[in-house]
Specification:
2 copies of one chain form a homodimer. Chain A is an alpha+beta fold and about 325 residues long. Chain A folds into 4 domains: about 60 residues, Winged helix-like DNA-binding domain superfamily/Winged helix DNA-binding domain (Arc Repressor Mutant, subunit A), CATH 1.10.10; about 50 residues, no CATH class; about 80 residues, Roll (SH3 type barrels), CATH 2.30.30; about 80 residues, no CATH class. Chain A has 11 helices and 12 strands. A 5-stranded antiparallel beta sheet of chain A has the order 7-6-5-4-8. In chain A, strands 10-11-9-12 form a 4-stranded antiparallel beta sheet, covered by helices on one side. The longest helix of chain A has 18 residues. The first copy, chain A, starts with a helix and ends with a helix. Chains A and B meet through helix 1, helix 3, helix 4, helix 5 and helix 6 of A and helix 1, helix 3, helix 4, helix 5 and helix 6 of B. Strand 5 of chain A pairs parallel with strand 3 of chain B. The first copy, chain A, binds a DNA duplex (30 and 30 nucleotides) through helix 3.
DNA sequence: GACAATTAGGACGTATTCTGTCCTATTTAA
DNA sequence: TTAAATAGGACAGAATACGTCCTAATTGTC
């Protein structure tokens, strides 16, 4: 291998080791015509290596200051994954990530060859993701200490307002963050309540990083804890409903709620708690498969009432 | 001019990022024969980049120490955006992006200073995103031509199976892709039907890139078109339901579906089409507010039948 | 010693890419 | 105005890159 590949890379080395060189000089050193030098300059640009040119008398070529070997090489799959990821990050809206997304894209594009840049641009221009969106960003002054705490496994002191309650100051060991249905949550060990708790980030009023350190439990599954705390702890009525279907069909109809179903003889058991049988009856009524209410009797009554309402609507 | 030059640079990058790699491994990664790898090694030597080789069993190639990539400097916000984006990309499952996400992360980490790497790791370890997930990846052989078509604005010939219909070959000008509720769609101009159409990617059986080019309409809004086509076109029964509620409550209950409701005297009008009154009745029965069925009469019957079923369950 | 897995490099045919030449166009400085 | 630099399209002929096939040598394991 002695030809153009070597000459293009030799051009790169020449430009790296000289402040500025004219096309005539480069042609002589590479042993090619000036027209070919211009092609090689194009080749470097396509490889993502930015070259500054000066027109007119005393013109010439220079590498952008400080630029070094080599450009960032992604495969098409990698470019796709990266571009989709940055698209999705628009929806998450944690802190001021909108501006950050643009600047990340700009930085990555500067080290991408033109072909990958074009692919990345096409993906961004033609692909849309409809995802749950977070309404408002979490204020940056909350997030910086929180991310530091997560990274360094240090406690935080938070001022938090639960639903319908006054603000309380607590010390928390943050184990993880979760994004679900457009909201950000933090899960961690609450020293005030002496147990795992979940906090909505939009209800955080103040957060301060403490010196005290903790050890996050190994294999702590943030999503699992959240799912349980959201579905399993609230409410004062125990509920058991047997769903006469398979796990796959249940997941299709119920989304991630299906993860709390337990396989049993006869189907899948939904075991939870609720404050409102009527709300749960409404939710159950959309399920496209058969189910049986085991507990509580109030739920059967609520379902009956709901069905009566539907019948009244149908008769209008 | 790009193939071999890029591959030589990729070889350099691979050697810089791994302690040692065999010729077989390098050939696989670069997509060339081992004989070509040996030529590329020669090329690096000719460029003055010293490569150490080890003969025999477990042999391989290594760079002489000292050839490094420049660090890539991201801010904390940028690191957060990038890391969240890659987390989210897991759910989208378009082609084989799972492996690609890992390798993107690895590539980026190699050029990150230790502090950013630690932050990025902490984010990946402690943050979870619960998002709609795509069940299965779109086969790569479909996606490559499709992405090429989008980038180059070239038509494709697709073999597509609509719901309950036989496969049909069509020529389509693809305008964009959309991810929604766990599914990937393509929107474009269908030459067979002479109008904009929406296609589910999991129903694509074949796709072939054509030479014919098109001009994508300026400011084409993929999501808007999708929303309209998904809610306004499918089905053979016209549906009109008046929801006796306000827009905010509707949005809480229905998510983005609420965007298609039209304010009218008496509430919000849902005007759509459906193939299945029974499915629609099930969906309507979960709504936590009053509604009236205007059209069709079949929907009233379906709602009645659904309510009867619920009553039977309540009586068990 | 035999075998397997690695390194090394020459030769060949084939498909693809590259090159210099010619040309037009634009930008600077003297 | 002239000269010296940048820029890029088009064309015909030459050069290059690639995989395949082959021989040769080096290691490690059984």
């Amino acid at each position: 291998m002695s030809g153009p590949t070597i000459r293009v890379l030799s051009l790169l080395e020449l430009l790296q080791s000289h402040g500025r060189l004219s096309g005539t000089e480069l042609a002589a050193r590479l042993g090619v015509d000036k027209r070919t030098v211009r092609r090689y300059i194009q080749a470097l640009e396509q490889l993502g290596i930015p070259v500054t040119t000066e027109h007119g008398c005393d013109g010439g070529y220079m590498l952008v200051a400080g630029f070094k070997l080599p450009p960032m090489m992604f495969t098409n799959d990698e470019t796709l994954a990266l571009s989709l990821g940055l698209l999705a990050a628009h929806n998450l809206n944690l802190a001021d990530t909108q501006g950050a997304i643009s600047s990340v894209q700009a930085k990555l594009e500067r080290v991408m060859p033109a072909k990958l840049k074009s692919r990345s641009r096409a993906i961004a221009d033609t692909i849309k993701l409809i995802l749950p969106a977070s309404d408002a960003g979490t204020p940056g002054q909350h997030l910086a200490p929180l991310l530091d705490a997560l990274e360094q496994q240090r406690s935080v002191s938070i001022c938090y307002t639960s639903y319908q309650q006054a603000s309380v100051v607590r010390q928390v060991d943050p184990y993880g963050l979760l994004f679900r249905s457009g909201r950000w949550y933090m899960s961690g060990y609450c020293h005030l309540r002496q147990e795992l708790r979940t906090f909505r980030l939009d209800r955080l009023q103040q957060i301060e990083l403490l010196q005290q350190r903790f050890n996050r439990p190994e294999n702590f599954d943030t999503a699992e804890h959240f799912t349980r705390s959201l579905y399993g702890m609230s409410g004062n009525l125990d509920v058991q409903v047997m769903l006469h279907t398979d796990k796959h069909t249940a997941t299709q109809a119920m989304g991630e709620t299906a993860s709390m179903l337990k396989p049993q003889a006869g189907g899948l058991l939904l075991s939870t708690r609720t404050d409102s049988c009527y709300c749960l009856a409404q939710w159950l009524s959309q399920l496209p498969f058969d189910f049986s209410i085991i507990e509580p009797p109030e739920l059967k009554l609520a379902l009956q009432q709901h069905a009566d309402r539907l019948i009244a609507i149908a008769r209008r």
